Amino acid sequence: MPEKGTFNWAKGFVLDFALSDGMSKTAVSTKRYLAQMKGMFADDAAYAKMLPDNPLVYEFFELGAPENSGDIAFGTSITYPGKVGDEYFMTKGHFHTILETAEVYYGLSGEGFMLIENPEGDTTAHPIAPGKAVYVPKRYAHRSVNTGSVPLTTFFAFRGDAGHNYATIETKGFRKLIVAGVDGKPEITDNPRWGA
Amino acid sequence: MPEKGTFNWAKGFVLDFALSDGMSKTAVSTKRYLAQMKGMFADDAAYAKMLPDNPLVYEFFELGAPENSGDIAFGTSITYPGKVGDEYFMTKGHFHTILETAEVYYGLSGEGFMLIENPEGDTTAHPIAPGKAVYVPKRYAHRSVNTGSVPLTTFFAFRGDAGHNYATIETKGFRKLIVAGVDGKPEITDNPRWGA
Which of A70, A103, B9, B59 lies most in the core, judged by the most C-beta atoms within 10 Å? Predict the structure, then answer.
């Protein structure tokens, strides 16, 4: 087992990610709290009301894969259960900097959706569940949305040099939102503020 | 859920791989029986003796990812428990055709090793277990070896255009073997026939 942060990408290594909850005892996760997601949820009043508690919305592992087209970045992502108003907790979401690179996610626990959209506006909400692999194609921004009551955990892999473009989504948002409907079930709706 | 064999790599898709055993109800696996591994185990007499039963040694999923550097091939690999003489059941193993491409394996069930070696002769046996991710670096041939009593199952991901070079290993073998020692525990030994 390597020490924290010391991964030998040239010789290979073994790293723990618990199948039950995606957590590693060896690697350190990157955490995103509600305060870091200003403007990303549709209901500003509900966001402001929750802000004093500043809950952890999601976390994921960045292992520092070489930014090289022959390497593979991988890790786990954990999105916690919760809602801001009627909108489910989710990751910020991003395009890859190298737009023409795909990613695969393998569901370990929890339930929700991988919301994807490409620059031309094609959108799909692929269901995520334990034992389901979701293919995020080239050119698609992607965001995990937890519609359940336990953490939504996935194992992910993508090209080492793909990079993360968060700015486009932070500025424009996704075209679709995933919210709890009146019956409490997830609904996919248009984002009234998209592109604003 | 896509129909068998129809995966939309351009729009994304969801595919089932059971966390318990790696099997898919939707996709079709490629199977490798003992008869397809002639000359790959060290003990020819033990091999010949087992051949009439022709057991299934391993299977894995090939989904037909586009042979493109921006796509990611993925699936599960299942290596069954067993031995030929004192050598554990294993996959054929291969280099990637594009040598400078890595691969990640995430252990779902069972126990064993990911045996790796590069053309210069550097070799390592990385332990595989449930909840352990193994990074196979660029330039390394890799083979799964099941040293336990239940199927060894992994989820894998690599670049869509990496390709498989089986011929080098079929001709030369790996420099190391993994065999049951006199105490029944796995031992890593030199392959006396390597390069022959």
Answer: A103
Domains of chain B: 29-190 (2.60.120.10)
Residues of B in contact with A74 (CB under 8 A): 104, 106, 133, 135, 157
Q: How far is A106 from chain B (nearest CA, A)?
A: 8
Tell if the CB–CB gap between B134 and A158 is shorter than 8 Å. Answer: no
Q: Considering only CB atoms, which chain B residues are within 8 Å of A126?
A: 12-14
CB-neighbour burial class of residue B54 (10 A; exposed 0-12, middle 13-18, buried 19+): exposed
Among all residues of chain B, which has the CA nearest to that of A103? B72
How confident is the model over B118-155, as pLDDT tens digits?
999 999 999 999 999 999 999 999 999 999 999 999 99
Q: How many CB atoms lie within 10 A of CB B99?
A: 16
CA atoms of A14 and B126, how far apart (whole Å): 7
Q: Does the global pTM surpass 0.90? A: yes
Residue B116: partners with Cβ closer than 8 Å, 6 or more residues away: A12, B123, B124, B125, B126, B136, B137, B140, B141, B142, B143
Q: pLDDT band at residue B159, thresholds of 50, 70 and 90?
A: very high
ipTM of the complex: 0.96
